[in-house]
Design goal:
By secondary structure, this protein is an alpha/beta fold. Strand 5, helix 8 and strand 6 form a beta-alpha-beta unit. It is 38% helix and 19% strand.
């Protein structure tokens, strides 16, 4: 790699004096290569993989960071929290997006979690459901959801991929992802598409895939069902999550139960390399300006400061 403009100039001068030694075309090619600034430099690549929940915001973070830092390229792929953790611990990616708590075996292998935003999983039905009006008025109680997803009553849809959304939804029902009944579908977009086709179906999706970011309303063809937390048979104002604004407020104020509300994590294996650390610092500083607009709830200020302090060690 050519380290500086002065060095390029010196080498160019030598070539000009010795141009008689080279074939003309080779000489021209060498001169042009040396004149191009930064020629031969490859961008530092940071690879991110994991939870669908954070994918839209991470794509935006990567887009802005790549524009501000042309010497770095952040590449993002989704596939579920399980895939992200596997990729990270095996060294295929630098950062995993994880929408569940880490397991002891993952921590033992060097997984280092950093809470970055707060999110939640929501019950979703088709607007064409013949009982939609009544369901939206009463909400879903925990017992009803246990009948659907643990006993297989009705027409439940669940995730076929190892993911934080399913693990978190199962935890709310007192179970684990492998206990959930229903038709297995890959990813949040898959659940949404399946429910649009099946008026009697019931599923669950992350915040970013339950509501339209532009309108703040549920995605076209879908309705988000509130949770009847107090079991009084109706949706109280504090339980209402029929719009993104109300859902975010319920998460922020603690009215929406946890789980299915939870922190979403960024995870590295051990200490991040310098380029990855710089990107993470940017996310927890400048990048926080994009959190509200993306429909997420920021983590607490003490959590953010703690992550920054650990990154600066």
């Amino acid at each position: 790699m050519i380290a500086s403009t002065d060095l390029r100039g010196s080498i160019l001068g030598i070539l000009l004096e010795a141009r008689g030694w080279f074939h003309p075309l080779l000489w021209v090619g060498l001169v042009l290569a040396l004149m191009l600034p930064g020629c031969g430099r490859r961008p530092e690549v940071i690879r991110v993989s994991g939870a669908w929940a954070l994918y839209p915001l991470m794509v935006k973070w990567a887009e802005v960071y790549n524009q501000q830092h042309p010497g770095t390229r952040v590449e993002v792929s989704a596939g579920g929290a399980g895939k992200g953790m596997t990729d990270c611990l095996s060294g295929l990616v630098d950062i995993a997006m994880v929408s569940r708590d880490l397991r002891r075996e993952e921590l033992n292998r060097g997984a280092y979690p950093m809470p970055v935003v707060r999110d939640a999983v929501f019950a979703v039905i088709s607007v064409g459901n013949p009982s939609a009006e009544a369901i939206l008025r009463t909400g879903f109680g925990r017992q009803v959801l246990q009948d659907l997803f643990l006993r297989g009553k009705g027409q439940p849809y669940t995730r076929s991929d190892a993911c934080g959304a399913a693990e978190t939804w199962a935890a709310f029902l007192g179970a684990r992802q492998e206990d959930l009944k229903g038709i297995g579908v890959y990813g949040d977009p898959g659940i949404a598409a399946a429910l649009r086709r099946d008026p009697r179906g019931v599923g669950y999706n992350n915040l970013a895939f339950a509501f339209d970011l532009r309108t703040g309303l549920p995605l076209q063809g879908l309705a988000v069902v509130s949770l009847d937390v107090d079991g009084n048979g109706k949706v109280d104002p504090s339980e209402d999550v029929s719009s993104r604004e109300k859902a975010v407020a319920a998460i922020r104020e603690g009215h929406y139960p946890s789980p299915p509300a939870r922190d979403i994590l960024l995870v590295t294996r051990g200490r991040a390399n310098p380029a990855t650390s710089a990107f993470l610092r940017w996310i927890f500083t400048e990048g926080q300006a994009l959190v509200d607009a993306a429909g997420f709830v920021p983590v607490r200020e003490d959590q953010r400061r703690q992550v920054l302090a650990l990154l600066d060690r």
